[in-house]
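I hope you will forgive my troubling you with a question about protein structure. The matter concerns a single protein, recorded as an amino acid sequence and a row of backbone structure tokens. Please examine both parts with care and let me know of anything in them that strikes you as inconsistent. Thank you for your consideration; the sequence and its tokens are set out here:
***
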Amino acid sequence: MGTYNDASHKTHGFLYSGGTWSTLDVPGVGTTIPRGINNLGDVVGSVGVGLNFHGFLLDHTGQVTKIDFPGSEPGTTSAYGINDAGQIVGTYEDPTINKIEGYFLNQGRFTIVRYPGASTTFPQGIGNSTVVVGKWFDDLGNTSGFVAR
């Protein structure tokens, strides 16, 4: 899974499975960036609509759901990981503090993910046992990884 640019510089998603390459584009958007897939074939990532980006879920039946963290800076939500239970992790920009924050989405309910002492938290994957992995930055810009439940 990844991205490629066509001759007109449009970014498309792709999936490579069983020796076959497939284009993975969300209909009606300019840019598709897949970032995570679960064992059911549900895909999450970011889609570009104009200059704004939104998170998306493309489920294994072909249904697309836009993901935007409530109250986030418009066009700043991204989805990075999904497990087989459909739990999703990603990031958004909080306009009240002007920082990127992490989120956990479970059955339509968002929870902020913030590593203790971090200036910015980037959850990037979630396992089937609800273990979240990612990276965080301190105020000096130093980066560390984390594993959390």
About this structure: The chain has one domain: 2-148. The mean pLDDT is 93. The domain at 2-148 is CATH 2.130.10.120 (Methylamine Dehydrogenase; Chain H).
